[in-house]
């Protein structure tokens, strides 16, 4: 009795294994024309656009592209380990901070020779800067972005703020917020990336590689952080107490018309426009992040682009692919379907882009946006910056002591030979 | 439960006398060949995939290896031996000590609840009971869901102000419910709750298995002798459960100490650093920066803490009369 | 220390499962308390999963737009499930097959290796016994996030990157030490007398292991099997790094791709989570009948 039961189990297990193996084997049998692998880190809506672009590309050039979806937060770990093992992809979608990082470690193919002077002139300088490192070009920018202020036009009208009287300085922004009922003015996130416009606006900075200085703890940066904190805790600000979920909460509050202003980037417009308050898209306003009292203005330039892996099996095919994905056609598609900003100046004249009101509204912000220094460690500053900003906004540390901790950590871990400016 | 010795005689020959080392080795092999044979496959795999990397990791902890000077086959390795610098730097930091404190609280509180709740449920499910199978299946479900999705679900449930828990508390009349993930103390409560929820099913199932081994004749005999339910539990069930319970508690303690997913996905160690445990702190402070030397130094520190602790644990359990580690 | 085998064989009477063959009828209020507490526990266990499940039937904007408590869907939809399953030419089915293969193989290999090792550690006090026992424990102590890099390098140098064999190897190293300790604990509860009786009957050491001890340890083996299966079925950290081609992805890796830079496709994650949980629960349903003591199947009579 026991015997037969054991046998039955064994049989069932073997059967499962066989079936599973068959499924796997059938998947493995694929025909091979010229195929390049592309690791994609976009969200599902942008991926739809990518796929239609890929089929266009394949029908034009006959090159097959195998798209591999990689979770965004795993991209560095996965690309690094795969490249070290010699199994990296042909094309990778890289975040701007990745390019210098990966280029410095030898994971990328040098494309300097392929980029024409005309192309170099055509790409937006702020976006293209991130793809130049150590005198070489390592990739092409797909979609730059910068933080801006989104506002609800109907709520502004209700509060009596005229479209001509929008705040142009950060102190004026705080006053504008005060015109709204309690908790309905602005939703500020407790994220260090989001704090940067205030830091720059008040004349502070992050680091200066040219002078080898760490600026985050200097007087102006502290002033900027204090200004952010006072707006964060102001009566008119939506009480943001949950730092793990605040991105989603800001979106929810804004989309439901519970708050008049949020700070976010162009990637979020697709989400915002699905909200009840923005059924009519003309209700969504874009406001350039205002200047600080000293006249300085800043918003971090971010974005993603395409790089070619060092171990690529077909450099020419990969180059054709990334050229296509950053060409006017592709940029028009991303602009029309996903509200992503094109990285080429010439694309802004294309009809699909020109007719997109939101993209037009973003241009002024992009023009005053601040590029971060292009360093291999560029993306790693947030590991210490983030938790300390949370402590400052939580009241666990003062702006001065919190930023001093950040500066000390950066010096210790990333920039040992820099000096901290007080 | 049993007073006889739990070991078997060695299969094969028995030796005697004052032999040389070579002879002793040969004889020892002859005596215990069966044990060695059964352990060999495991040790080959372990040796290759765990002990060797562990050894290398320990070596790296005394160097300044990082992403630029080590472990990249495409670039030359130029890391240097720096002695105990990594260790002194870590151990001197006040933040490290705070994180260590919370790690200890985290570990003990979690395992305490895992064990007591798991045991209570196992005892309840060990009886003849209507719907027992249904209860067992439903109570197991937290274990069956991929933990990263459960962590997200709890993160959304703890959301302030839109999450289920806060909305529910508002409906019950609490006007400003706590920001579970934003307040440093409540955040600790939130991550512990999530981890207890995740861990109880395993304990319950493991202890249920252990309860099966308890001879019900002993329980009957105790009942005949006049012991009430509590006394039967204390003097028959609990001792009978000891081998299994001692094992799963120790493993649970080690496992919880290093639990990465829950903290990382629910609070990211925040707000600030109030829910960092050593494993996530090491990740954020060293691994994220690919400072391999520092990361492995953290690993060795964690390893040492757990080794010392497990020795202490063994002595305590042994003194309670358990032969598992004698 | 070691028994000399001089103990006469013991006639072991058939053993009853603890709690059965019971004497007293349970009073009604005890039943109420028992059922009451089990119901509360079940609600707490189930609720988050129920919440995930109910969200899987909501369209995206209902899940993420809702600022208020909104349990039941306003617009019930099955499209999340169909989207997840049919995405990319039914890639989901490949993930499912891969996960099933890996989980089953890991369970077979893991349980077999740890049963033999656990038995040896339970019964024999050979030289090096303490070291072996401690070394298994030590493998659990190094945090996974840190040991993943060296393990990855070894797997790379064996050229097993992006292969299911590499993943199997990685999972075995995670599961086997733990299962060995667990099984040792279970084996320790089985009296030696039964094996001695078997030995006297002429069984080889392996024979006593296979024919006497294993059948009697079904609860321990069931727990170990289920633990190994679930660990391999739900594991994402190692699989994410080792598996590079999408047709080799396992289910958790595939689902992880729904977590984006700033937000998540929560409607797809919840649908995917349900699809992943159901087989795991079915496996448990299958395994749980073995949570019955093997000792009730008649002890060895000598």
Total strands of chain B: the figure is 0
- Global morphology of chain B: flat
Mean pLDDT of chain B, to the nearest integer, reads 83
Q: Report the helical percentage of chain B.
A: 55-70%
CATH superfamily of the largest domain in chain B: MetI-like
Layout: helices, strands, pairs:
The complex is a heterotrimer of chains A (422), B (326) and C (302).
Chain A: H1 2-28, E1 35-40, H2 44-61, E2 64-69, H3 75-84, E3 91-95, H4 96-104, H5 117-122, H6 125-128, E4 132-133, E5 136-137, E6 139-146, E7 148-152, H7 153-158, H8 170-178, E8 186-187, H9 192-201, E9 207-208, E10 213-214, H10 219-232, H11 246-255, E11 261-264, H12 269-272, E12 284-287, E13 301-308, H13 315-325, H14 328-338, H15 351-354, H16 357-367, H17 382-394, H18 399-413, E14 419-420
Parallel strand pairs in A: 1-2, 1-3, 8-11, 10-14
Antiparallel strand pairs in A: 3-13, 4-5, 6-13, 7-11, 7-12, 9-10
Helix pairs in contact in A: 2-14, 9-10, 17-18
Chain B: H1 21-60, H2 85-92, H3 94-125, H4 132-144, H5 147-157, H6 164-171, H7 184-211, H8 216-224, H9 229-257, H10 261-266, H11 278-287, H12 292-319
Helix pairs in contact in B: 3-7, 3-9, 4-7, 7-9, 8-9, 9-12, 11-12
Chain C: H1 28-55, H2 60-65, H3 79-123, H4 129-141, H5 144-157, H6 164-187, H7 192-200, H8 205-216, H9 218-234, H10 237-242, H11 251-256, H12 266-288
Helix pairs in contact in C: 1-12, 3-6, 3-9, 3-12, 4-6, 6-9, 7-8, 9-12
